[in-house]
Design goal:
Shape: rod-shaped
Number of helices: 5
Helix content: 10-25%
Strand content: 5-15%
Largest sheet: 2 strands, antiparallel
Number of strands: 6
Structural class: alpha+beta
CATH architecture of the domain at 99-205: Roll
Distance between the termini: 154 Å
Strand order of the largest sheet: 1-2
């Protein structure tokens, strides 16, 4: 009987221990200090040779010495606009023809000055006198020898500008300057046929 009571008592004590163990809180995971979870940043900079170099911040708060980044040099703009060049105007070379047809506003002495002719030889070759009126359209024969020989062939100083007056033409304006050809005036002023002029128009005289 005593043995039976002893066994029952042991069973009760064992049951009590089991029940008390179920009520105990579960054990906690070990806590790590905050600094144990921090990652260490790595500083990467470009070296002068073009490679990469790394540095780890020190515990004192100063950074490891690295290579400073060089400022980018401005590149020269090779496509910057350049100054606009003024086109060269080609003035026709004045040569002495064998014949010349007079235009409105021209006369024999005008032609002699223009082509550096001896005026007496020009009149003689064309059976003309100094007082002969020669109409536009008349074809003059041009001497191939001799020169003006009467002083300055120019009647007015040039180069200059000329303001067109009533009744003037390119040919009469050329004659008024003596040694200037109509072709030169046309070229310098970029005129086109039929070379109509306007009163008050300004022309460059080469």
């Amino acid at each position: 009987m005593k043995k039976k009571i002893f066994i029952i008592s042991i069973s009760i004590v064992f049951s009590a221990l089991v029940l008390s163990g179920c009520k105990m809180p579960a054990s906690k995971a070990p806590e790590l200090p905050d600094d144990g979870l921090m990652t260490t940043p790595i500083i990467i900079v470009t070296s002068p040779s073009g490679g990469l170099t790394g540095g780890v911040p020190s515990t004192t708060g100063t950074e490891e010495p690295g290579y400073p980044l060089e400022p980018q040099q401005p590149t020269e703009d090779f496509f910057s606009p350049t100054a606009t060049l003024t086109p060269t105007i080609m003035v026709p070379t004045l040569t002495r023809p064998e014949e010349y047809t007079l235009r409105d506003g021209e006369f024999p002495f005008c032609i002699a000055r223009r082509f550096d002719l001896d005026p007496t030889a020009l009149l003689s070759l064309n059976n003309l006198s100094p007082n002969t009126l020669v109409a536009p359209g008349t074809v003059l024969k041009i001497p191939q020898t001799g020169s003006w020989g009467e002083g300055d062939r120019s009647l007015q100083p040039h180069p200059t500008t000329h303001t067109v007056r009533t009744g003037e033409t390119i040919f009469s304006i050329a004659c008024s300057y003596g040694s200037v050809s109509p072709e030169a005036i046309i070229a310098v002023n970029r005129l086109e046929e039929p070379y109509k002029l306007t009163v008050g128009q300004t022309l460059e005289i080469p």
